[in-house]
Amino acid sequence: MALDFLTILDKSIATKAITFDARQPVFRQGQSVRWLYRITHGRLRLSRVLALGSEIVLARVTGGEILAEASVFAAHYHCDAFAESTSLLQRYPIRDIHALLNCHPGAAVAYSAHLATQIMDLRAMIEIRAIRRADDRLLTWLRFRSRGAPPSFDGHGIWPSVAKQIGLTGESLYRALARLQRAGKIERPGGKVVLM
Length: 196
Hints:
Helix 2 packs across helix 3 (105-129), helix 4 packs across helix 6 and helix 5 crosses helix 6 (170-182). The protein is built from six helices and eleven strands. Strand 4 (43-49) and strand 5 (55-62) form a beta hairpin. A four-stranded antiparallel β-sheet has the order 1-8-3-6. Strands 2-7-4-5 form a four-stranded antiparallel β-sheet, with no helix packed on it. It has two domains: 5-126, Sandwich (Jelly Rolls), CATH 2.60.120; 132-195, Orthogonal Bundle (Arc Repressor Mutant, subunit A), CATH 1.10.10.10. By secondary structure, it is α+β, with helices and mostly antiparallel strands. The relative contact order is 0.14.
């Protein structure tokens, strides 16, 4: 069984833990790429400021994920990254990442698999956001994210983030959860959602 990239990364490269306060920048668009960041806990926003000054959010990234994976192959960051909450990140020198990918074929394959998974997730999110009815959109997202038998998802404290991810308001998401529960499609024992 192949190791995943994060396991290889942790075993191969020394890291430094850094805490960022809410609204603190991790990096800015145009800065030289010197580090790869992995989020231990917290939430970060990748965004760009448009010509007229408005911000477009490219992604929200949470604990366990790599921040701006594509920057591994770039000379400069293509966007800004800000902590949305107090966040703990692991920082890896980009030169060590390059050396790992060049010298360790298993790491290169694992990173390719990691990126392929990201692409599949993005494609799924595009399809989910195209679903018109809020109930159907949320139920499809829950089926995509739920694990175990019976399939379940621990949504404790993250529903506002889920709402943004699938293009709903918080109020619409909570109403959809209630309708799905009344229809017998889900159960909600203590912050968890169990698919029926």
